[in-house]
Amino acid sequence: MLPDETKQKGNMDVTGAALLSIGVVLFTLFTTDEHWMYLAGCLAALVLFAARIKRASNPFIEPYLFVRKKFIAGTVTGCIILGMVAGFLSMVPYLMRSVHHLSTGMIGAGIIFPGAMSVMLFGMLGGILVDKKGHHLVFYIGSLMIIGGFLTIAMLADQSPWIVTAMLIFVFGGLSFVKTVISTVVSDALEEKEAGAGMGMLNFACFLSEGIGVAIVGGLLSRRLLDFPLLPMLWNAVADLYSNLLLLFSVVIVAGSMLYTLAYIRKRSRRI
After folding, report:
1. What is the pLDDT of residue 8?
2. How far, CA to CA in Å, does 28 sit from each of 61, 100, 175, 192, 202?
3. Per-domain residue ranges of the chain
4. What per-residue string of b and e applies to 252-265 under the rule 16 or more CB within 10 Å gives b?
């Protein structure tokens, strides 16, 4: 429930936006080229950005949002999960072409489209479940759906491509559940006057994490650091790289779920 905010005169923080953009671009370059100068430049730009928003009259991102621990925890959790799912989706066409030799049209219409359409159904279902069962249960259901989809594809990556189609429905559905919960817990962590800036930052951070997730996956695919046999049930050696990436994604999703638990479950239990 966003407040009825009034407009105020002021100038956009162009300097802050530029510093943050430079930091993001340099980090993205680091994920693909692995040149440490890019990472050093990224850190320098982010330090300057932090100093800028503290003294700017109309900062690009309100600095008081960073002291809201539950807000930051929810935002980081959303970024982790959305970034991994975005990276996975960018990987699917490569998996389908290199392992199953499918055409571009078949990949888009036959493999990805059914899962994309399921987002509408699961989005409505997630909203209903949040109201009736609470957002914590819905979050863990969504996380388990994503992890289950990743692990199933990891173990059966070289089998029928329709397995990927079915698991994409679970991944998209789980993502819908998680996004619904993250929006709820993040907004609850904000005061009414902070809702506009806070939800804007959440959307900005999630879009940013999706782009970074795609860049990281692109770097891992090109460098082929994970291209080695790990799961014995795979017969096609070409599938090893994609299978190992999905195992890595699953571990990262578990880490994001643990962060959510520490921020929203564990503390509440201690107070009780």
Report:
1. 67
2. 21, 30, 24, 35, 20
3. 10-61, 66-271
4. bbeebbeebbebbe
Instruction: Choose among 131, 135, 132, 125: nearest CA to 183.
Output: 135
Q: Using CA atoms of 103, 108, 110, 114 in order, give the dihedral in degrees to the nearest 10.
A: 170
Report pTM. Answer: 0.86
Q: What is the pLDDT of residue 232?
A: 78
Who wins on pLDDT, 167 or 230?
Answer: 167
Q: Helices 195-223 and 161-188, interaxial angle, to 10°? A: 150
DSSP for 247-260, please give it.
HHHHHHHHHHHHHH
CATH 1.20.1250.20 fits 66-271, yes or no: yes
Question: CA-based Rg of the chain, rounded to a whole angstrom?
Answer: 20
Amino acid at 39: L
Mark residue 34 as left, alpha or beta (left: phi above 0; alpha: psi -120 to 50; beta: remaining): left
- Tell me how many degrees the CA angle 261-264-268 measures, rounded to the nearest 5: 110
- The closest alpha carbon to 178, from 136, 211, 217, 115, belongs to 136
- Report the alpha-carbon distance of residue 153 to residue 12 in Å, rounded: 45
